[in-house]
Amino acid sequence: MSRRQLGALAAGALFGVGLVVSGMTDPRNVIGFLDFSSRWNPNLIAVMAGAVAVHASLLALLARAAGGRGARLLPPRNTRIDRPLILGSALFGVGWGLSGYCPGPAIVSLGFGARTAFAFAAAMVVGIIAGGLVPRRRGSCESP
Amino acid sequence: MLTGLLGGALIGLAATVYLLATGRVAGVSGIVAGALAAPARSAGVRRPEKTTVAHRAFGAERLGDREARGERIAFLAGLVGAGLIAAAVSSPAAATPYPTAVLIVAGVLVGFGTRLGGGCTSGHGVCGISRLSIASLVATATFIATGAATVAIANHLFLGTPAP
Question: What is the pLDDT of residue A78?
Fold first, then answer.
């Protein structure tokens, strides 16, 4: 295993532990956040705030350590706000609300042996393949 | 809330480790798509001469790099490993309140939507916003809005009463 692969494995494990600790692998917590009608569960905001605070701070520190070359640390990003961005995100939100799963927690839940997670993940792969066949947004995250 | 902040902090740290290790942004939907990508015929070939439907579906023309694929698979193995550990030390809850048929429709929508929009909760929500990307902020606001609208309708349709 290469050093890069080990780093990626450690990152995945850490990411997964973070999702479990924060309660995001329980779809009811996610649906509780999206449910503004009654007992709203604001926990997801705390999770995102914690993640963004730490990641943004570390990016700033790394950029400073790299001096003027800080920007090169980051892969280029797609800044356009276009139709695929809005339509894709809107469809993702519908699926997220119907299940309480987004891709990360669904993959972690495979490790739980959760039957619902296997059904969801298999369907998600079908969706990913279909999504790869249409003109889509590139260059914002891992961006295949 | 405290566990949320703590878990979130671990996620932010993990995204940084992934970026440092691989030079790429830790967006889980993109990592899954890239892990599925068929490797190019030989290492270092970024664009196969012929792109088939399969190549386009899996993004192999951009993501065929064998090494990148190995790193993505390693990250996903880490995610599943965290789930295995969690299941060994506790009994994590993983229940959805809606029927399995709904879950399958949801999975297809999540896969298709995140490909089309170029990211999910991690890629746009965590990494994009951390990089001060307005596009990612717009994406995040969009999927939270349609998610909330969907839950309001789904609770009415499948549960009859609000809140699981």
Answer: 77
Instruction: Identify the burial level of B9 via C-beta atoms within 10 angstroms of its C-beta, where 0-12 means exposed, 13-18 middle and 19 or more buried.
Output: buried
Q: Which of A87, A88, A98 sits opposite B150 (nearest CB)?
A: A98
Residue B106: its chain A contacts at CB < 8 A? 94-96, 98-99, 101, 120, 123
Residue B13 belongs to domain spanning:
1-94
Cα–Cα distance between A74 and A83 in angstroms, integer? 25
User: Does residue B145 sit in the same domain as residue B79?
Assistant: no
Residues B53 and B121 in one domain: no
CB A124 within 8 Å of CB A132: no
Q: What six digits make up the tokens of A129?
A: 């393949």
Tell me how many domains chain B contains.
2
**Residues B122 and B44 reside in one and the same domain:** no
Look at the block and give the residue holding tokens 């023309």: B61
Picking from B35, B67, B94, the residue at the C-terminal end of a domain is B94
Together in a domain, B52 and B131 = no
Q: What is the ipTM of this complex?
A: 0.93
Residues A7-21 pLDDT 10s: 999 999 999 999 999
Rounded to whole angstroms, how far apart are CA atoms B139 and A96?
13
- Looking at the structure, do residues B89 and B20 belong to the same domain, yes or no? yes
CB–CB contact A136 B115 (8 Å): yes
A90 touches B113 (CB < 8 A): yes
Q: Chain A partners of B16 at a C-beta cutoff of 8 Å?
A: 54-55, 58-59, 62
